[in-house]
Every structure is written in C-alpha cells, then in structure tokens.
Design goal:
Layout (H helix, E strand, L loop, with lengths): L2 H12 L3 H7 L5 E3 L1 H11 L1 H22 L4 E7 L3 E9 L5 E21 L4 E14 L4 E17 L4 H67 L5 H35 L8 E3 L12 H11 L1 H22 L4 E14 L2 H4 L4 E11 L7 H67 L5 H36 L1 E2 L4 E2 L7
Parallel strand pairs: 1-7
Antiparallel strand pairs: 2-4, 3-4, 4-5, 5-6, 6-8, 8-9, 10-11
Helix pairs in contact: 1-5, 3-4, 3-5, 4-5, 5-6, 5-8, 5-11, 7-10, 8-10, 10-11
Length: 493
C-alpha cells in the first residue's frame, strides 16, 4: 500500500461519527460508587424499611413481655349501675307478687398485683367500695373492704412465667442480630444489582466502541476495495460485522434500561434517575482465619441464639406436658378489713377482720393414658429438635468454611483477571494497527476483538463475585475482618 493510501485511511480513522457526536451531547447523569449505592439501599429501600419495622415490632413485644413481671395498678368499677324494674317477691303464703324497685348498685375497685415469676403465683392488694341506693325508700348504704391482701398460687402446675423469662430475652436478642443480618443482606442485594447494571453499562460501552470500530473498518474497507486492495468477501465480512454491531448496541441499550430501573427502585428512587456507576477498582484487603470466622459467627449470628431458643422451647413443651397431667390444684388466701356504714368515712372507721382460705383441686381418676402420651410426644419432639439443631450447627460451620475458602480463591484469581484484561486490550490495539497496515486478516482481528470484550466482561464478573463473597462473609459472621470488630447498626465500610 502506498503512502497516499495510508494517509487517506488514517484521515478516515480520525473522522467523527454520528454516535461520537451523540455521546458529546449526552445529558449529565449522577455518578454513584458501590458504597453510595449500598448506603442508599440501607436507608431508602423497601427491604430496609421492612427490617426496621420488624425490629421495632420485636422491641415492643419484648417490652410487653417485661411488663408482665412489673406491678400492675388497676382501677375498675360500675358508675352508675341503675335499675328500675318489677321484681317477683315471694309472700308468706307462697304466692308471688311483683314489686317495683328503683336502685343503684355502684362499685369501685382499686388494686395492685404482682406476678411471681419463680413460682407462677400472684400477690395482690385491693381496696373496694360499694354503694347501694334505694330511690323508693330514699336510703343509701355503703359497704367495702378498705384493705385486702391476697395470694394465689397454682400447685404442681406448669409455670409459663418462669419459662418465658428464659425464652423471651433470647427472642429479643435474636431479633437484634437478625436486623443486622438483614442490613448486610440488603448490602449484598444492592451489590448484585450494582454489578448487574455495571455489566450492562460496560457491555453497552463495548457495543458502542465496537460499532464505531466496525463502522470505521467498513469505511476503510470500502476505500481499500475501491483501490483493489480488498476482496469482495472481506468487504462483506466487514459490512456484516457493522450490522451485527448495530444490533448488539440496540440490545445493550435495553439491558441498561432494565437494570437501571431495578436498581433505582431498590435504592428508593421512584423517578428512575439516570445514573452512571463507577468501577470499584479498590478491593478490600484482609485475611480471614477459619477459626476466628467460626468463633465470631457463633457469637454474633442470630441462628446461634435461635438454636438456644428452640431447644428451650422444646424443653418448655415437655414441662408443659408434665405440668398439665390432669392433677390441678390452686391455693388462694386473703386477709383484709371489711366494714359497712351509712356514709363513706364510716367504712374506714373501726373495720373488722376478713379472712379467706381456699384450696381447689382436680384429680383425674382414669384418662386412658392421655397424659402419658402427651409427655412422651413432647419428649420425642425435644429429641428431634436436639438432633435438628446439632445438624444445623454442623452445616453452619461447614458453610462458613466453604465461604471463607471461596473468598480466598476469588481474591487470588482477581489479579489474574486484571492482567488478562490489560493484555487483551493491548493485544487488540496491536491487532487493529496490523490490520490497518494490511498485516492481519479480518478473521484474526475479530478474534482479538472477541477476546478483548470477553476479558473485560470476565474482569467485571470477577469483581462481582469478589464483592458477593465479601458480603457473604459479613452476613455469615457479622464481623468486619478489615477493622477486626463486630458489625454494629451503623457500621459500613
């Protein structure tokens, strides 16, 4: 090829295309890093709002449980309790006559009670006042108990209060750890969507450059063909490559729009603002010790608390079956003061003693083995739960080991992917120059192009795998190995 032809080809190479002009007119878009996307997702996503609401719900459930062990002050009554009616009255001769009555039976009770968690009983202190008014006879009388101290205690019964005191704090602790894990899962999901869009944008960028290159090569091919330097078959190959590049660019546009819509909705941007993602070149550098990972996972993961709670609940059901074996007894005792008077102050002058003692019981004579069957069923379920928890703990440790090994392997492979991407980019540049100089076939140029594109995709995919594995480790252990500390509510790299 003579110097004039080469000069003409390079002039064609420098000519701007319609697509490059369109890029210059591209509207300004918001640039987001991986960390920015994760922060937006943890603050604005529906998943984050659900996790926060669930955490709040569990908090109030725990507060409700705690209130069962605190004194309860209650005021109740009937003010007024008026009745006007005709009531039957039996006469001395056995006949019945209906007499009109109009009266009021008002009552007011004030009491404080305290549950006894250790025994399942209750102590209480009450005071009540009753007022009776007969409107027909215009009489008013008062009766009441200025002070009543009482005690109620089930005997040989299942004590739900004692078991709840062991289980409910674990349930609350479990919910707090679950919330932290939910946030890390949101981070992982945001990372996956980030790379889904990033890969789509990189594929679009590759398709855009490939279209420009193929359009340029086709124009150069036409110039070579007009000078008799290129066969008809090679020119048709260049034309077909340009047409395929157009199709690939249109398809990549669709992928970008879909991925951007999903990411925007996940991070709470309902307006679907155009965004451009920044490639996270800097990788987290830290070593993970298997023993440390397993130890921290057992200390921090909500499943560890869940295992303990599940075992306690199984033991609780055994205790329930044993306590509800048919034998039912209850001790009830009160001591107080009582009085009656024609006015309210009279109730509190010189009251008399009032005592009561009651032991109620129920003993089954024949239940045809029902109680024994319930106990055996509860014990069998307890054994099944123990075996299930033991298996889950083993699988839990194995999963941590696998994830740590996988993370280490992915991190080791990253350097190779980076080098492969750089090599493929450089090789394609050389191949393109050789083709322009007529020193390389169109087939070899296309091979170099495909290798360049695939190396770039492999590199970005390796980045995605790295960050997925990174957050998998955080989810499994709730531990930040970079900073050597447990993950807290507001902690994020």
């Amino acid at each position: 090829m003579n110097k004039q032809a080469l000069h003409f080809l390079y002039l064609l190479l420098l000519l701007p295309t319609g697509n490059s002009f369109a890029r210059q007119m591209k509207p300004v878009v918001q640039q987001l890093s991986l960390k920015a996307v994760i922060l937006l997702a943890r603050e604005n996503s529906t998943a984050a709002l659900q996790a926060a609401t669930l955490k709040e719900n569990k908090y109030w459930q725990y507060k409700n449980f705690r209130s069962n062990y605190l004194p309860q002050l209650n005021l109740d009554g009937r003010l007024p309790d008026f009745t006007r009616d005709n009531v039957p009255v039996t006469q001395p001769d056995g006949t019945v006559q209906f007499r009109p009555v109009a009266n009021d039976n008002s009552q007011l009770n004030l009491g404080i009670s305290q549950q006894i968690g250790a025994t399942g009983g209750q102590v209480f202190l009450n005071s009540n006042l009753l007022k009776f008014t007969d409107f027909d006879r215009k009489e008013t009388r008062y009766s009441g108990n200025p002070l009543v101290l009482g005690f109620s205690q089930p005997l040989f019964a299942f004590n739900a209060l004692s078991w709840d005191k062991k289980i409910e704090p674990l349930r609350y602790e479990e919910s707090k750890k679950k919330y932290l894990e939910d946030l890390e899962e949101i981070s992982r999901n945001a990372t996956s969507m980030f790379f889904e869009l990033l890969i789509a944008q990189i594929n679009h960028e590759i398709a855009q450059k490939n279209k420009e290159n193929n359009d340029m090569l086709y124009r150069i091919g036409e110039a070579k063909s007009s000078m008799g330097k290129l066969s008809r078959d090679e020119l048709l190959q260049l034309k077909l490559a340009a047409l395929n590049a157009d199709k690939a660019l249109a398809q990549s546009n669709l992928y970008v729009e879909s991925a951007m819509l999903r990411l925007n909705y996940f991070i709470g941007d309902k307006e679907n603002t155009a965004i451009e993602l920044l490639l996270p070149d800097e990788l987290a550098v830290f070593d993970i010790d298997i023993k440390t990972a397993i130890r921290e996972a057992r200390n921090n993961k909500y499943q560890t608390v869940e295992f303990r709670r599940t075992l306690l609940e199984a033991r609780k059901e055994v205790a329930r079956a044993q306590g509800e074996n048919g034998l039912n007894a209850n001790l009830f005792a009160t001591f107080g003061l009582s009085n009656r008077a024609t006015d309210i102050p009279g109730i509190y002058r010189d009251p008399v003693d009032q005592q009561s003692l009651r032991i109620g019981f129920q003993i089954p004579i024949v239940d045809w083995g029902r109680s024994a069957a319930r106990i055996k069923t509860a014990e069998a379920n307890k054994k099944l739960t123990e075996y299930s928890v033991a298996l889950q703990e083993t699988n839990f440790d194995q999963e941590i080991y696998t994830q740590v090994r996988q993370f280490s392997m992915i991190r080791e492979q990253m350097q190779g992917n980076i080098l492969a991407d750089q090599t493929a980019q450089e090789r394609y540049g050389i191949a393109k120059q050789r083709y322009l100089l007529g020193d390389l076939s169109i087939t070899d140029l296309n091979i170099a192009l495909q290798e360049k594109d695939q190396a770039k995709r492999d590199y970005v995919l390796a980045l995605k795998n790295f960050w997925d594995a990174y957050f998998n480790i955080r989810i499994l252990t709730l531990y930040d190995f970079e900073k050597g500390m447990k993950i807290g509510n507001d902690h994020l790299n």
